[in-house]
Amino acid sequence: MTREQILDVIREHLADELELDPQTIGETTRFREDLEADSLDLYTLVQELEDSYGVKISDEEAAGILTVGQAVEFVLASGISTANSTEGPSGD
Q1: Fewer CB within a 10 Å sphere, N or C end of the chain?
Q2: How many domains does the chain divide into?
Q3: Does residue 84 fall inside a structural domain?
Q4: Burial zone of 81 (CB within 10 Å; 0-12 exposed, 13-18 middle, 19+ buried)
């Protein structure tokens, strides 16, 4: 997957979870300050990333992810490729 595809998946998830317009969410958007996401919102995002991309995010790592861009970077750094997921989350 490309950076933009990962960003789109995260953006859509957040928009759905927080009932926002996905176009208002960018890479510099901060979860707590800009989106007013609480701990449960962030937990569901972490679960979504783990389920969608097969990455494991520790509590310490999750605490260090403060922006949407950092979440995208984490997924990319985890080594996912187009072979792992060409169509994003399955929605199952």
Answers
A1: C
A2: 1
A3: no
A4: exposed
